């Protein structure tokens, strides 16, 4: 068989497979519509339906990755199925998701990674504004950054949890690649200023020291704002990611300039609904302790005794008094797991206050 004949046969086979894929996706979408109808029929008067179930989506993606035999890797397969689920969910009810704007930020990228592109993503000017929009019911969920692997905790997010009673419904881990970007009017040999978010400038500190030690480093509200600014300036550059580069029509003159190759940011999904166990969960809590010797030991002892694995602990100044602190703690397990529940009850007895922020599925990828 000639090469042309082989290619024609393969293309015909691909066309036939595409038809089957389309048929199955349409069948799945019709099932989603029926699910919505069933939920509507079983509601009590005045009750609002819950279409998006974080635990269900996490279980679906985990199962799909376990079944995956290649050649596509798990990350790519999960991305494809996330988009299918996003489109099907939009047939039931399009989700409104607030993120830290403007358009083109890493927080928007995290929102789209978690919810897919069929949601209505709404940019907010500040982290606290995201919390307020979710609390008011103006959006279904919010996406906020909570920690970076290079620069640590995002304190604005932690402080917002002290002020608002919202539930963490999920988490997203996003690999962060920073690029040095210029506009069409930029004179590359005359760059004297670089714009970026303060966190991004810190994450690229060594690279800037080595390649542009004398230029002015200007911290702005977001990387997307940095990208927008350089469009009209001939002597400036921006540090931002792929979304901002494409959105504002900029050119990369240096790629992946972050100091650490594993640079990642963790984002939290905040909402108003508690999430049932999936078998692979995390829990986040805030604990305030009295200022006495051994307070931290008493706080951590129940976790140790029950074999609960802590993944993060941060301290922030308490709002209740000078030189008093609260602890933000993340650990593996769900608040309804017997060992976790027992540990939390012991901590509640020892602490001044315990606030469970939520139990939620671990990030899929």
TrEMBL record:
It is found in: Cytoplasm. Residues 96-272 form the Prephenate dehydratase domain. Residues 1-96 form the Chorismate mutase domain. Its main location: cytoplasm. The record marks 265 as: Essential for prephenate dehydratase activity. Catalyzes the Claisen rearrangement of chorismate to prephenate and the decarboxylation/dehydration of prephenate to phenylpyruvate. GO terms for biological process: chorismate metabolic process; L-phenylalanine biosynthetic process. Residues 284-361 form the ACT domain. InterPro entries: ACT-like_dom_sf (IPR045865), ACT_dom (IPR002912), Chor_mutase/pphenate_deHydtase (IPR008242), Chorismate_II_sf (IPR036263), CM_dom_sf (IPR036979), CM_II_prokaryot (IPR002701), G/b/e-P-prot_chorismate_mutase (IPR010957), Preph_deHydtase (IPR001086). GO terms for molecular function: chorismate mutase activity; prephenate dehydratase activity. Its EC number is 4.2.1.51, 5.4.99.5. CDD domains: ACT_CM-PDT, PBP2_PDT_1. It comes from Halopseudomonas formosensis. Keywords: Amino-acid biosynthesis, Aromatic amino acid biosynthesis, Cytoplasm, Isomerase, Lyase, Multifunctional enzyme, Phenylalanine biosynthesis. It catalyses: chorismate = prephenate; prephenate + H(+) = 3-phenylpyruvate + CO2 + H2O. It holds the Pfam family CM_2. Pathway: Amino-acid biosynthesis; L-phenylalanine biosynthesis; phenylpyruvate from prephenate: step 1/1; Metabolic intermediate biosynthesis; prephenate biosynthesis; prephenate from chorismate: step 1/1. It comes from the Bacteria. The gene is pheA. This is Bifunctional chorismate mutase/prephenate dehydratase.
